[in-house]
Amino acid sequence: MEHAYDYLIVGGGMAGDAAAKAIRAADATAFIGLVGAETSPPYQRPPLSKALWKGDTALDSVDLGTAATGAVLHLGRRVTSLDPAARRVRDERGDSYGYRRLLLATGATPRRLPFAAGDRLIHYRTVDDYRRLRRYAVAGAHVAVIGGGFIGSELAASLAGVGCKVSMLFPGESIGSGRYPPTLAAFLDDYYRGRGVDLLAGVKVVDGRADDTGVELVLSDGRHLRVDAAVAGLGVTPDTALAEHAGLAVADGVVVDAQLRTSDPDIWAAGDLANFFNPSLGRRLRVEHENAAVEMGAHAGRAMAGAGGDYTTLPYFYSDLFDLGYEAVGLLDARLQVVEDWSEPHRKGVVYYLEGGRVRGVLLWNVWDQVDAARALIAQPGPFDAASLRGRIPHDG
Ligand SMILES: Cc1cc2nc3c(=O)[nH]c(=O)nc-3n(C[C@H](O)[C@H](O)[C@H](O)COP(=O)(O)OP(=O)(O)OC[C@H]3O[C@@H](n4cnc5c(N)ncnc54)[C@H](O)[C@@H]3O)c2cc1C
Fold first, then answer.
1. DSSP annotation of 322
2. Do residues 168 and 192 make contact, with C-beta atoms less than 8 angstroms apart?
3. Are the C-beta atoms of residues 70 and 32 closer than 8 Å to each other?
4. Can you tell me which atom of ligand 1 is nearest the CA of 320?
């Protein structure tokens, strides 16, 4: 079957949804198509590891309502080829989709463990993964969480919260090591242990086997761990295959210019997939966070519909870990110079990440409504040091 659109979006995630809404807002009559590999219409991913485990959030609430834009949604369809010269993509069933302007919003795919995953070993990313984990994560079940980054730490807290026995395995010294200053990371480890999570630090999963009754994990220190189910959050890799085969510039993601346009003038890219330049940080980035997906999707949609302007938004993200929560802007890299400013040690405070006297990142730990202040600080040339930063961002209101 042949379809033809003014605007075609490949990828039915948060960036794709935001683009469809922005295009519709700019162009009331355009013919918009969206092709997405998942069978669900675009939805919010962050609740999959947080709110949906708290009991007061219904699964339906994650739907983003893309259909209301009037875009035609081709779901359960994976695009397998892109021909920029013909301005056409094709899906795995042979349907073809012509476009005038195209957005690539194919996001990222979870890294996988090096052995066959049965139903009980879940590389966590989608709403189907959530449904599958829910089946096994009943009170009293023993679940291994593999990975100590964002997804692993959120899932470990959520699973413990629904009464699972949780073993959390990660190669670093502590939860979030490399991101949080060492004393905060050590505090988090204690916090998790205090809530019954068994931490196995400094280990990797090197082998394993999943069957109908459980998952057997072989660890790098020789230990074996038998659990009812295992969920992995090992990071993601951008889905660049289409762009690469089409000859677009790719370097840790699809390379885009300040308007989020790829090396082809009729193709844009946004979200986890896109590698863009941020002027405040003075470097190219690829960001795997909701805010970037939504803002870039919307920006690309407007640009495709003819509105100009550069994309300058600093990366922002948030997380919930048991009853702790934070927001963060910019780069959180513990290798930078770190200035900690606590009003309550490890409970409430601000952590600044500096490079050559410039603030590159701000962690607002249980400090709220200060994201704009953090963004403004990162945009300033400085120089800053510990003395000039302490007390700079207020911890209350
Ligand atoms: C469990 C979880 C919790 C998270 N929590 C937070 C959080 O608290 N805060 C935060 O800032 N960020 C969070 N994130 C990250 C955030 O959700 C992502 O950065 C964001 O969803 C990326 O959106 P995207 O549209 O770029 O890509 P994706 O959401 O990956 O969407 C891409 C879509 O494109 C589809 N696709 C891929 N290839 C093709 C193809 N060839 N043809 C058709 N379709 C294709 C994929 O199947 C997918 O549906 C979380 C992510 C997960 C998984």
1. T
2. yes
3. yes
4. 8
Q: Which atom of ligand 1 is nearest to the CA of 16?
A: 25
| Its pTM surpasses 0.85 | yes
- In a 10 Å sphere around its CB, with 0-12 CB exposed, 13-18 middle and 19+ buried, how is residue 115 labelled? middle
In this structure, CATH architecture of domain 112-232:
3-Layer(bba) Sandwich (3.50)
Q: What's the gap in Å between 257 CA and the centre of ligand 1?
A: 21
Q: Where in the chain is the domain with CATH 3.30.390.30?
A: 323-389
- Residue 59 confidence (pLDDT) above 90: yes
Nearest to 292 by CA among 271, 308, 306, 277: 271
Residue 13 C-alpha to ligand 1 middle, in angstroms? 5
Residues enclosing ligand 1, CB less than 6 A?
10-16, 35-38, 45-46, 48-49, 78-79, 105-108, 124-125, 151, 239, 242, 271-273, 288-291, 293, 317-319
pLDDT tens digit sequence for 70-108: 999 999 999 999 999 999 999 999 999 999 999 999 999
Tell me the pLDDT tens digit for each residue of 158-188.
999 999 999 999 999 999 989 999 999 999 9
In ligand 1, the atom with minimum distance to the C-alpha of 271 is: 26
Q: How far apart are CA 259 and CA 251, in angstroms?
A: 17
CATH class of 323-389: alpha beta
Task: Name the residue with tokens 């003075």.
Answer: 282
Q: What is the average per-residue pLDDT within 210-237?
A: 96
Task: Judge whether 305 and 21 are in contact, CB under 8 Å.
Answer: no
Architecture of domain 2-109+236-304: 3-Layer(bba) Sandwich (3.50)
